[in-house]
Amino acid sequence: MTVALRSHTSACPACDAVPAAEALAEREVQQDVRIALSLPMVHCAACIRTVEGALTRYPGVKSARVNLTLKRATVEADPEVSAEHLMQVLEAIGYESYELDAGTLSATQSSKAGRDLLMRLAVAGFASMNVMLLSISVWSGAEAATRDLFHWISAAIALPTIVFSGRPFYVSAWSALKHKRLNMDVPIVLAILLAVVTSLWETSLSGEHAYFDAALALVFFLLAGRYLDHRTRAVARSAAEELAALEVPRAVLLSDDGEEMVQVSALSVGDRVLVRPGGRLPVDGEIIEGQSELDRSLLTGETLPIFAAPGTQVSAGEVNLTGPLVVRANAVGEQTSLHRMADLVAVAESGRSNYTSLADRAAKLYAPGVHILSALSFVGWYLFTFDVRTSLNIAAAVLIITCPCALGLAVPAVTTAASGRLFRKGMLIKHSTALERLSQVDTVVFDKTGTLTAGTPELTNADAFSYEELSIAMALAVGSSHPLSLALAKVGRDAGIRPAELTGIEEIPGYGTQGNLNGALVQLGRASWVGVTALTQTSAFLALGDKAPKPFLFVDALRDGAMLAVDALKADGKTVILLSGDTPGAVEDLANRLGVQRWVADALPEDKAETIHQLANKGARVLMVGDGLNDTAALAAAHVSISPASALDAARVASDIVLLGGDLSPIATALATARSSTKRIRENFRIATVYNVIAVPLAIAGLATPLIAALAMSLSSITVSLNALRLR
Amino acid sequence: MQILAYLIPISLVLGGMGLLAFVYTVKSNQYDDLEGDAQRILSGQYDDQPKI
Question: What is the pLDDT of residue A273?
Fold first, then answer.
């Protein structure tokens, strides 16, 4: 940033010209920052236009481009443009947006792999079409020299293609064999190689049957399945990376030189860290300066803020509410309680890896079966005819016909359709078997704070106060950024109440706000501060002079769609349970509001995981929905788990599905989609099996011609793909 | 059957041209935002910066 340091006034304009030109050149090179914004709401052509238009009109923006598939906008702009400005612009036109840390987004790598697959797919498609063209003339009766010529041309096209396009299968099969395992790719590679070798042999002997077209079609269809699979995962992965990129981890370090903004990873034990109101604590430590209140709902599920003063022990992840705090770090990074809690997850997660997907179960039955069948037909025919050529031909035909073209497509086609559908509804499927597991769910466990509730308080007893009292309370509340004050001020503004005229308004961090009304002291704040005993419910007390303090009562506002989701799940026959770390009063109140019969309060993180285990031991398939750190172990222990995008990073990592918007209602639809997609996957397996049952006996009997192989393969692949598309 | 000497190379060249065209579209990022492109075509405005 030498540009900024250079002096711009000079007595000698010519001297200035050189550095100015340099500066200009430098500006061209280093400027143009790239800002990435996540836009969960864009969905249509008009949205693209509005967003791009608004962004490009903003001064300093060079270009803006929306990617609808990734729901992301990339902006090239001058360095003075910051993401906050652009977020305000978008907010004004009604789109919520979040800044993404460009460093965390490593889209290049996954898109490179996708491109690589697409290229191999294209080459396989080109080759198989050409060879099919030649094969059709052979099937329709080309003979003698013509047939040999066609076979040789086919071989010339097929061999390099199979080497190039089939590479992903060879790599995967080889790594499986190295570990002495069998996967779906082993029979595939065997079929391809055997088909090519026997076809070459046949061709060199002027034989009748060559399977070049079958080998290529096999590669083509399987690559198509592989590509679909990759695409679905790439979208999910980039969206997950995006969520990680949302958290830009910085902290204010206090040193002898003053304040300094540093990366959280650069902090060490003993550092003094300044945490401003609204900021999240980056380290575990002890408060050495300042007074405030801390919101620890993400860690424990408590909604009531706790008082914090010098000497209070704090943990990373808590949110500072009212006054600036200086914290001396006694644990940083991996040592913080936040990270230790995340280790609990790793333990809980080991249980989940027991789940074998439908595809794996099919492969386990299938791969050995195919090999045995093919080997048996080789041996059988060899004993029958003592002719290696015929028996090898038949063994190759069996392998090609049983080869899992349709099986390779059966799962990816369905999951692509289902994930795409859910992604449009704002759900991100992170784990490949999450849909299958979701379809088996019969019990849904919700966390309370931050999941069913939005984490913003709502005033419930405004009627109990006179206009005058409300106007005084509002005057005290407007200046503060405490969540309860914000809620109070909002109610006042909506009701059109004018703040009373107070003098000497002062916020006492950690306690409340006070002021003077005609010489009398008025206070709004914590119970202990105004001299009464605290209530169990979230409340703020208003004390006017010598009169007895009156409480403002608050409840946590419901998250959008929470009611809808719970109702739909109950109508669907699922058991709904509320599991919270909050006080019994608050949990019972919410359970009553939502009509949930079973609830558990005061649950510690271990209790939550334990409850899930108990349910699982009773045979229930549990879906856990939660957002806090106290939920992570439970999220990982559940059969399948969902967390909202607002959740802590650790919770999102532990869950299989992430809700991208603020709305909970897609959960119920997701269950339905998951069920229908699992049904389609099973149907697809059945279809593939039916084709095999018809074609395999023909192959074993030696009646399978390359034409029959091609027909069986294409027809089954196409029916399977079409069946998957019916999901929409 | 002499015609085959022409027809086969011609069909291969035509197919190869299709393949090259596809490779070009992949290299120039035309598959990065399929949904967006499908929606953009509905808009009346001219897309003056189709690539970023």
Answer: 84
pLDDT range class, residue A165, cuts 50, 70, 90 = very high
- For A101-148, the DSSP string reads -TTT--HHHHHHHHHHHHHHHHHHHHHHHHHHHHHHHHHTT--HHHHH
Band (A543; pLDDT cuts 50, 70, 90) = confident
With cut-offs at 50, 70 and 90, classify the pLDDT of residue A158.
very high
Q: How many domains does chain A have?
A: 5
- Chain A interface mutation, best of B3, B14, B26, highest count of A Cβ atoms under 10 Å: B26
A68–B39: do the CB atoms touch at under 8 Å? yes
In the three-class reduction of DSSP (H, G, I as helix; E, B as strand; rest coil), residue A577 is classed as strand
Whether residues A277 and A313 fall in one domain: yes
Of A74, A126, A134, the CB nearest to B18: A126
Judged by CB atoms closer than 8 Å, whether chains meet at A49 and B1 is answered as no
Chain B positions touching A69 (Cβ under 8 A) are 32-36
**In the predicted structure, residue A648 carries a pLDDT above the cut 60:** yes
Note the Cα A522 to chain centre separation in Å: 48
pLDDT digits (tens, 9 = 90+) for A286-303: 888 888 888 777 677 676
Q: Which residues of B touch A421 (CB under 8 A)?
A: none
Give the N- to C-terminal CA distance of chain A in Å, as an integer. 53
Catalytic residue numbers of A? 447
Q: Which two tokens stand for residue A634?
A: 């439970």
- In a domain, residue B39? The reply is no
User: What is the extent of the structural domain holding A96?
Assistant: 25-105
- Tell whether A137 is within 8 A of chain B (Cβ): no
